[in-house]
Amino acid sequence: QVQLVESGGGLAQAGGSLRLSCAASGRTFSIDAMAWFRRAPGKEREFVARISWSHGGTTYADSAKGRFTISRDNAKNTVDLQMNSLKPEDTALYYCAADRTQIYSDYLRRLPGTYDYWGQGTQVTVSS
Questions:
Q1: What is the CA radius of gyration of the chain?
Q2: Which of 10, 22, 40, 27 is nearest to 96 (CA)?
Q3: Which one of 6, 54, 100, 104 counts the least CB within 10 Å of its CB?
Q4: How does pLDDT run across 61-76, given as a tens digit for each residue?
């Protein structure tokens, strides 16, 4: 099992920045990649960004490109999401996720069902 704990959420103004962090523990050697998803009120969970645990390759949702940066620290077993130029529509509960299987399909990498482990989420609220 892998446990994931998010931190760093909070309130920001539009145009501001927040940095989320996800700490993994347990059988972290089994992780192939980690990702961030979010769920806004009344909407389904959506993909934000993903990073390969081994080689650091990244994938971003169109809404995150150019504004968000995902990074990892293998020594600390953490994955961060730096969010800049925040918009009110970024308001959501942000979840960290991890998967154990190499996924080559860009489509599958963006699906919540691909991931084996989830954190509890951290709230991000962006005011206009």
A1: 14
A2: 22
A3: 104
A4: 999 999 999 999 999 9
